[in-house]
Write a structure and sequence with these properties.
Number of helices: 7
Number of domains: 1
Helix content: 40-55%
Number of strands: 5
Distance between the termini: 33 Å
Shape: elongated
Largest sheet: 5 strands, antiparallel
């Protein structure tokens, strides 16, 4: 893969055969596009979690569980408290598993989360291949590493010549626009007349 100073990477298309390996230029995504996509994803995950919590509340109320039943003097308190605790714990576990699954499954199956798709972004390997399950999990772990270090891993996109954050470097990935980039500045602006 070759990279020029305009942040255009040339990667082989994912469906290229071994005999003919034409390359297509791709435009690597910058910090603002990636941040906007991430904010959209956080909103989607948050709203999904709120809807899930509301459904849990409705289901618990449908089966007769309510905060009134947890009074200290209620005769059924111990049994209901244990059942409600189990249901709430399982629901919390489902939400905790939903958040990483949202990112990993989207990266592997589609190549992008809904937020990235809205902005026309895609996550690929530096060689142009799709992410494997293992690479997607490594990338997700890299998100946490990037965040724990005062978000420096995400800000690294601003200074890296390949526009890779720490999570991208760990997983050997790049984030690109799904539209085709021009092959050169000459192709983008036409011939220069001086």
């Amino acid at each position: 893969m070759a990279i020029n100073d305009l942040h255009t990477a040339v990667v082989p298309p994912p469906a290229a055969s071994a005999l003919a390996t034409p390359t297509a230029p791709v435009q690597t995504a910058g910090f603002v596009s990636r941040l906007t996509a991430f904010v959209i994803d956080v909103v989607i995950v948050t709203l999904s979690s709120i809807v899930f919590a509301a459904l849990q509340f409705v289901i618990l109320n449908f089966f007769g569980f309510s905060a009134r039943d947890l009074r200290l003097d209620a005769p059924t308190r111990p049994t209901l408290a244990v059942l409600e605790l189990i249901i709430v714990a399982l629901s919390g576990l489902a939400v905790l598993l939903f958040v990483p699954a949202y990112f990993v499954v989207a990266w592997v199956l589609v190549g992008a989360t809904p937020g990235k798709r809205i902005l026309g972004l895609k996550v690929i390997r530096t060689g142009g291949q799709r992410l494997s399950w293992w690479r997607a999990i490594v990338r997700l772990v890299g998100y946490w590493i990037s965040a724990v270090a005062l978000f420096l891993g995400f800000l690294w996109v601003l200074v890296d010549t390949r526009r890779q954050g720490w999570h991208d470097k760990l997983a050997d990935t790049i984030v690109v626009y799904t539209w085709q980039a021009p092959e050169s500045e000459h192709a983008q602006h036409g011939p220069r007349t001086e």
